[in-house]
């Protein structure tokens, strides 16, 4: 899978640079946004839009949403090279949500450097993050692959539906952070992941299906595959946060016990509270609800989670979801290579180490 | 015009409540967002979405974007009552931008109460503001007026184009706040207004034209009317900030010299710098660039603006734009009542006192 990711990356970044060039000038602005009524200020737009967007993209990111889209397109029998522009849609949307999430969570670090709002100011960061919700949607209007009107409409309707659910998931998640009690059920937690992380993955799969004109049941099946994989990915994230923190219990840095400090209600926390004896469960609740935690308190919370067997439980759930995702793929009539690549994605999301 | 605004308000608020009910339950969530894969948490969504949204709407706002849309629909010969759901699109988009702008500007007060991010936290406020960019777009998919596919596609394409330009305008504006020198030209300032404020007004006009199937030249003419009116409105806003501050020069409250404190590059400021003698122009630049200003410094900046005749200049420009907006309307073949209402809007935006 590493090869597939590396192979496509230059073409994807080139397509993103067609959408938002590294150097902004008046000609680009007129061609993409329409003629100005008076006069654009390309220099301001360079600094407000292009520079922060490329700063984030150049820090890394595997572009796996774009690549997964191209794997689907190829699996559906079309030439992926003809659809690279469309691959930017989920990729830019995703990077936009990252910028906005970092403002919402008051994150300090993103991809090893200062979060965008700490480099450019909160106003610029938010505006570029929000612009990235609409810039890629214009690709459907530009229509580089000459799609018929009904497919463009179907794509817009799908995007609007999924982006609405994304905000529903994010709403549940941040609302829970602000609550003192962990009262969330496992099903509510999984729904939050299905909305928040799952919908962007569903966009990847459904966009590929709509653009290549697949029947509804195929679109639904790849959407389920993408959602299951994304939920497994999210659980993998929560596991990594605890594992990394346990691994460096002596090295009390910034990344130590992040999720606990934020009061995040993860699958591990929900399980640990259900499975621990009442006194330890109450203690974990209290540590999560606290305004701040000492490093010793973080270590204590981590120990409660570890002792409850929550890491093993979460890992099993993630593996189960990934297995169900593979079943969805196996039911479809993809060629062996596509099936293998789609299987590899479900493994990657769980076995990654960062 | 007051009567038109008052007449429609209950129907508009009812349509908004169909989209986002005041009380969220699982049935609404399943019908609007689709069946959950696992289980929604209606209580969290109540607190993350519905409560803050209705808090803002219940504080007031004239719903003039929704009403202007209905005036156009009636002028185009259709029954406005059949299109009230669509009238919510620009109204909710506008209120969403207000929430996000207040976070970007670190505003403290909105409609006489604490800004939403100060009541609910920045994370909840941002998420509800962003959700309001996508919730209303779903109305086109729900399709209450049974529009044919090509009109729905045209509406989506128009919305995406205009929302992209909105973020371009906002990007220019906030970037200029962060600059020390006022180097903006009058045309760049007017473009920023045309993008930032104008595009939401253009959505009002173009949506009415698209939905009622008007020819392209009619859509373009009402869009120009809306943009001209919106730019006049924005200049009116800048004038009011200076007038209010001059009027209460003794009453050094929060609202005194807001725009100057923010370092906003308004039409008045651009004019004052051009027209004042070099020493006073430099002094105004310096006061705008300062991290903070004493009340005496604000009074000094206001005096430079007043002495340069910038209030009269800005008022003339706004009146000129409003007159051009009326010419656009007069060229179209609206009935006398619609023409009168559209004229009244161009007067309202300049003559209002708050």
UniProtKB/TrEMBL annotation, chains A, B:
Keyword terms of this UniProt record: Magnesium, Metal-binding, Transferase
Keyword Metal-binding: yes
Domain of life of the source: Archaea
Originating organism: Haloterrigena salina JCM 13891
GO biological process: isoprenoid biosynthetic process
CDD domains hit by this protein: Trans_IPPS_HT (cd00685)
InterPro entries hit by this protein: Isoprenoid_synthase_dom_sf (IPR008949), Polyprenyl_synt (IPR000092), Polyprenyl_synt_CS (IPR033749)
Name of this protein: Polyprenyl synthetase
Sequence similarity: Belongs to the FPP/GGPP synthase family.
Record's signal peptide: none
Coiled-coil ranges from the UniProt annotation: none
GO MF assignments: metal ion binding; prenyltransferase activity
